[in-house]
Design goal:
With 320 residues, the protein is mainly alpha-helical. Helix content is 70%, strand content 0%. It is built from 20 helices and no strands. Helix 1 runs antiparallel to helix 2. The longest helix is centred in the N-terminal third of the chain and has 15 residues. The protein is elongated, with a radius of gyration of 21 Å. The mean pLDDT is 91. Pfam families: Annexin. Keywords: Annexin, Calcium, Calcium/phospholipid-binding, Repeat. Belongs to the annexin family. GO terms for molecular function: calcium ion binding; calcium-dependent phospholipid binding; phosphatidylserine binding. This is Annexin.
Length: 320
């Protein structure tokens, strides 16, 4: 459900049948009115898009997503199809592609499993099995290994402890130190157990205690004691425990500051967070980098007007 933190909200004067007619007209005849498609779909919530999809099929006897795919192309097509996919199904599809493609896209596994709530993860597991006929955990185990795999599997259970255990805060901070900086070698099992199972509220207090006791942030300890995908996953878990919007603000900034913009990461985050916490992400982005997310997208995508405009509408929520 869209709360005040999201940028895409229910369109006030919504009429599914009329929207279906607008889309049909935009795709009818020679040429496609891509601007009409953009304006309509980017200003409807995902729930409303599903109603439009049903109305389109009832009226015209065709699947709306298939019709859109036949008329559009490139990044714009990918973005519109993503917007037409229910959020949990979208996450499940991203995980399936990450696991079933050539190689494993560990960045997608990390992003989704570190940032989603326990309830969302449990729903993703159900939808994944329904839509792809297999168990997500089995597919992850088959494509990953070591301590990276263990932490992914723990996160996949969606069973973090609830609330704060005051008696364990300082003990957990001490154990995190003892497992990393405080010994020769690293006790990854201990790090994984605490980071993967404690509630975010509890972990924030543990990280504060860690800094007070040892004078540095937990991120510095992880960076010094782990490497590769395990390091990336642990850092993502820590950052999401501290602030999910800040985590995504950093990810968006990184996607537009690499050599060559990472459009898939940019699109994935903009779509998946549009009805979650995009306004908070925008605020974090401005605070962290001194520029607006909206303007940064505009600058990065001047050559791709439709893709640019759609992301900008999602960012601004001006059409909601």
């Amino acid at each position: 459900m869209c709360l005040t933190k999201c940028s895409v909200k229910d369109f006030v004067h919504f009429n599914a049948k009329q929207d279906a007619e607008v889309l049909h007209k935009a795709m009818k005849g020679i040429g496609t009115d891509e601007d009409a498609i953009l304006m309509l779909l980017s200003s409807r919530s995902n729930k409303q898009r599903q109603e439009v999809k049903a109305a389109y099929k009832k009226t015209y006897g065709k699947d709306l997503v298939s019709a859109l795919k036949s008329e559009l192309g490139g990044l714009f097509e990918m973005l519109i199809v993503a917007l037409m996919t229910p959020p949990i199904s979208y996450d499940a599809s991203l995980l399936n592609k990450a696991l079933k493609g050539v190689g494993t896209d560990d960045d997608v596994l990390i992003e989704i499993l570190a940032s989603r709530t326990c309830a969302q993860i449990k729903e993703i597991v159900k939808v994944y099995k329904k839509e792809y006929g297999g168990k997500l955990e089995k597919d992850i185990v088959g494509d990953t290994s070591g301590h990276f795999q263990k932490l992914l599997v723990i996160l996949l259970q969606g069973s973090r402890e609830k609330g704060v255990d005051e008696d364990r805060i300082e003990k957990d901070a001490e154990e995190l130190f003892a497992a990393g900086q405080g010994k020769v070698g690293t006790d990854e099992e201990k790090l994984i157990n605490i980071l993967g199972n404690r509630s975010h509220e509890h972990l924030r207090l543990v990280f504060d205690a860690f800094k007070k006791l040892y004078g540095n942030d937990i991120e510095e300890s992880i960076e010094g004691e782990t490497t590769g995908n395990l390091e990336n996953l642990m850092l993502a878990v820590v950052k999401c425990a501290k602030s999910v919007p800040a985590y995504f603000a950093e990810a968006l900034y990184g996607s537009m500051r690499r050599a060559g913009t990472d459009e898939k990461t940019l699109m994935r985050i903009m779509v998946s967070r549009s009805e979650e916490d995009m306004l908070d992400i925008r605020a974090c982005f401005k605070k962290m980098y001194g520029v607006s997310l909206y303007n940064t997208i505009q600058v990065e995508w001047t050559s791709l007007s439709l893709f640019n405009s759609t992301l900008s509408f999602i960012c601004s929520g001006a059409m909601g």
